[in-house]
Queue: 4 jobs
Job 1
Amino acid sequence: ETGVTQSPTHLIKTRGQQVTLRCSSQSGHNTVSWYQQALGQGPQFIFQYYREEENGRGNFPPRFSGLQFPNYSSELNVNALELDDSALYLCASSVQGNNEKLFFGSGTQLSVL
Amino acid sequence: AQSVTQLGSHVSVSEGALVLLRCNYSSSVPPYLFWYVQYPNQGLQLLLKYTTGATLVKGINGFEAEFKKSETSFHLTKPSAHMSDAAEYFCAVRASDRTALIFGKGTTLSVSS
């Protein structure tokens, strides 16, 4: 049984650029959630995908968007990067109806210069 | 609306001493409560959770937490700290729409020999 894997592990971008982060969910999990963890803060919910559709969203602007694929893997896209987007981005997978048991990946550390 | 407050951003204990990490919550619905641990350069791992039923919950690595509705608290304890317990600990409550977890800002636990 494979765990949640995220790529890349580290990324450096310039303000105004676009970025795509990727996540492979744990085997058998059909739901993917994305969280942003700023330095010294707890994770903040960005959105959740189930059956390739967004079914929950936190307080993030539309330039944060996502996709879920038929194999349940997922992408997080961020357009028009801002300095405050610098953070650790965590992907978590779960089984729909059991969202309280999240399995997290190790995250992608994004630095925006 | 749901929220979590973790009292004390940093707790230091000696090896073998009692560990007590404090968490208070606010919830408009019966709460589902969680403790997650994050080791350096890793994602979050579920320690324990309270959903319904028994208010004293036992988790992994010897940790336990007690749900106290009258005090709106869910403090995490461990009778005897290990050096390997040094990490960041996050308390969380499930959002009312059941898609997200709302995390506190975290408590860094340091264990000295």
Job 2
Amino acid sequence: DADVTQTPRNRITKTGKRIMLECSQTKGHDRMYWYRQDPGLGLQLIYYSFDVKDINKGEISDGYSVSRQAQAKFSLSLESAIPNQTALYFCATSEGRNTEAFFGQGTRLTVV
Amino acid sequence: GQQVMQIPQYQHVQEGEDFTTYCNSSTTLSNIQWYKQRPGGHPVFLIQLVKSGEVKKQKRLTFQFGEAKKNSSLHITATQTTDVGTYFCAGRRDSSYKLIFGSGTRLLVRP
């Protein structure tokens, strides 16, 4: 089983709909992240959380919100999806600030 | 803000040829990490460099961190088809929580 699990793996949604992407981890890490990947643009940080009570905006947080329901769970919401939010979304965890990041399998989101 | 540029964006080599990707930061980094993403997969950590001028090797892969801690490179000797994928560098400033990723270099290897 994967240490970092994302659901769903693929999703097609309509413009204006609310959608939630979920991430759970079994690594016991406090730090969790949401990244967005677009072709040619690498990975851009959307939000990150260092513990259940700590949520921070990343580089591209507009149009997104997050919830850290527990140490193991970190969900990303698009309140009103728009086509330019079509992308591959990755959740990641890390043990500390200067340690490696472990990525989930990704969620491919298409907004039509 | 902090930017991490990576070149080339894309490289297609014959199996057995060498490959290098370069990463440059607009600011001094406390450390740099390298990740590999196979086609259809997720980024997987390869290595972290911390010291100025540091060089690390993993079999055919050689990683370098510049003296000024603003640039880094990944060199693959004698590429194999299993090296196919996108290679990302990711840097972090001393005082920063954020791991900033480069745009990646996509490597294709002709058998």
Job 3
Amino acid sequence: DGGITQSPKYLFRKEGQNVTLSCEQNLNHDAMYWYRQDPGQGLRLIYYSQIVNDFQKGDIAEGYSVSREKKESFPLTVTSAQKNPTAFYLCASSIAGAHEQFFGPGTRLTVL
Amino acid sequence: GQQLNQSPQSMFIQEGEDVSMNCTSSSIFNTWLWYKQEPGEGPVLLIALYKAGELTSNGRLTAQFGITRKDSFLNISASIPSDVGIYFCAGPNSGNTPLVFGKGTRLSVIA
């Protein structure tokens, strides 16, 4: 079954701790994306990667970091520098050059 | 940055009613995408539009690419309870740039 997986579904962390969210896809897509969603808001782009070992900042990259060492994986680290990290995080992927993005089920991060 | 404005922000309808929502931009888009997000889940792609004036259906859903290329419309006919969710429009600014998303229309269906 092809798709995008994000784990865990729910994540709790103490303030000041870094936390890494997992995103894996077996769709053979070249491009991957991370979005943040807050209640009543649309999706805001954090980082994206169009090819392995390369990535670009989105609109709200401050306080976040990513890596793209493998085509299938695009982990997102929420650092302690992120002022308001509690949110729903969505990962997506797409074929290179295509606009249609396909989303994972999301990870809800709560920082206590 | 580029913004997409969706209206209405929310709507409550009776089961069986038809629904219309729209998405507008101040600049031209070459592609319009419509997604549905159910509570606690990731968005699912419903319809993609690629040409001005294009009308595309997916079951009870019909979407149109506006002639001016600055708007798009989504209609749902004979709504059912499982239509509940948030409907987002999205499109690329230009070329290979990532998508920009509207803030969504939240649909509630009263049985």
Job 4
Amino acid sequence: GAVVSQHPSWVICKSGTSVKIECRSLDFQATTMFWYRQFPKQSLMLMATSNEGSKATYEQGVEKDKFLINHASLTLSTLTVTSAHPEDSSFYICSATGQASNYGYTFGSGTRLTVV
Amino acid sequence: KQEVTQIPAALSVPEGENLVLNCSFTDSAIYNLQWFRQDPGKGLTSLLLIQSSQREQTSGRLNASLDKSSGRSTLYIAASQPGDSATYLCAVSQSGGSYIPTFGRGTSLIVHP
């Protein structure tokens, strides 16, 4: 079945530094990848949608200069949290789909970011 | 705008019970509906995917049904086990658009021995 690998699974960083999270589709070509943020006991909040080779489409209220998304290939998308602050601490999850979404969505295992 | 509601928000049952988790959506023009499981601090694991033309899907002890006209889906878990304890999320993808799924807030399930 479709597998999406997300790294790192957890990261602690100092305030003001940048953190990069990787999302890879291991056995399929991900034409579209999604980045979500999840707060404790809340559902997933879509941050942005990225298509390979195109600029990401950000949801309203998400700062694109703070959350840089790159989808340079059909198997890799990255989310960089720039100049991180404690309020950026959260659980970030990526998702990927191939072809039309007939195949459904496959999720990564998530990244727990803690900014101190 | 599609809205997805899951009932109940939380459920605690003894091992062995048969369970029904509910998902309702406001716009019936969907492309597909997917049920996921999320363990604490983990990503989402896909359980069942139902296309808009299908009525149900089964996998092991899990059965998901879809009634587009009434905007409802149910996830049936037979003979529940402690290992089924997790949060179950329902996601609906819209047709005629970007297919981006809309998630419900989930049902938190605890199955105690």
